[in-house]
Every structure is written in structure tokens, then in C-alpha cells.
Amino acid sequence: ITSTKTGSITSIQAVYVPADDLTDPSPATTFAHLDATVVLSRQIAALGIYPAVDPLDSTSRQLDPLVIGEEHYNTARGVQAVLQRYKELQDIIAILGMDELSEEDKLTVFRARKIQRFLSQPFNVAKVFTGQDGAIVPLKETIRGFKGILSGEYDHLPEQAFYMVGSIDEVVEKAKTLQ
């Protein structure tokens, strides 16, 4: 709500979006006044990926290279670009199948699916439901993991290894048990 040099008062609001239409005038007007939006997605939840945050529709004014640094910014934008291209390809995949995609687009799809799964997080509060300990991953490790996925460093690993893990090192270890 307000900030000073010594602190800030913030507010978290839940905004109802009629028919999940983010372009509806009411929520769109509200979003214009917010510093950040976290959009939960039914489609992502249907994939069993939690938290079901949509990284394409969610926004933050802090996603600025002057605020978060070039490496973080470029990695985040790279992740968004891959996910956006995957979203654009989904109709083609549904109609014609993966075989009709170019090699470059196939690679984009494989990396996007790994990114989606790497965005899943084991939470301490969910341990009673999952039986899995939560993970806290430092920002630098998270950036390193996504940079590696974007660069193709982990193309050889199965996408299942990226699901519900903490760091990219855990992905590598999990992949060993899957092969």
C-alpha cells in the first residue's frame, strides 16, 4: 500500500476473474494498479504441477534487469519465451502430432516440458499429503538450473526427473534412479 526508506505496508488481494478471462475489464483494471500478479491455472493444476502458477500470465514490476540483475532477468525471459513457444505449438501438436514439428520446435517442446516440471515445488506444508519433504532452493541455484535447461545441458535427462524436486542437482540424482 505504501513504502518508505524504513519499510513498507503491503497487501495481498485475491481477485475474482470471471470465466478465467484476464482481459475482462474489471480484473484488467485492477491488475493495472498492482505491483505483481500471481495467476493460478486450472490447466497447470490438471497436469499435477503445484503450485499451479502460470508463469506467462503472472507478472511483476520487479522483473527488471536494473532490479534483479541481467542474469536473473535473461533467464526468466528465456524461460517465458520457451513456454510461450510451447503454448503456440500445442494446437499443431494436437492436430498433427509431434512428428510434424521441426527439430528446433521438438527441442523447444522437450525443454518446455522440463521447465514446467521444474517449476513444481515440494512444500513442507504438503508433506502430510505427499510424504515428501519440502525443499528450499537458493535463488542462485534456481537460476543455474533454469539456465542449464535453456542451454540444453540437461536435454539427456527424462522429464520425470524434473518433477517435484528442489535443485537441479536433485534432478540429476533423480534421473539416475529413473534410468
Describe this structure in words.
The protein is mainly α and 179 residues long. It has a single domain, classed as Bovine Mitochondrial F1-atpase, Atp Synthase Beta Chain, Chain D, domain 3 (Bovine Mitochondrial F1-ATPase, ATP Synthase Beta Chain, Chain D, domain3), CATH 1.10.1140.10. 49% of the residues lie in helices and 6% in strands. The chain has helices spanning 25-31, 42-46, 65-68, 70-96, 103-118, 127-130, 139-151, 168-178, and strands at 2-4, 7-9, 36-37, 59-60. The protein is globular, with a radius of gyration of 18 Å. The termini are far apart.
Q: Compute the number of strand runs.
A: 4
CATH architecture tag:
Orthogonal Bundle
Spans where pLDDT lies below 50 across 5 or more residues: none
| Sequence of strands across the biggest β-sheet | 1-2
**Biggest sheet, open or closed, and with what strands and sense?**
2 strands, antiparallel
Q: Roughly how many Å is the radius of gyration?
A: 18 Å
Would you give the CATH topology?
A: Bovine Mitochondrial F1-ATPase, ATP Synthase Beta Chain, Chain D, domain3
Distance between the termini: 51 Å
In N-to-C order, the SSE pattern is: EEHEHEHHHHHH
Topology (elements, then pairings):
Blueprint: E1 2-4, E2 7-9, H1 25-31, E3 36-37, H2 42-46, E4 59-60, H3 65-68, H4 70-96, H5 103-118, H6 127-130, H7 139-151, H8 168-178
Antiparallel strand pairs: 1-2, 3-4
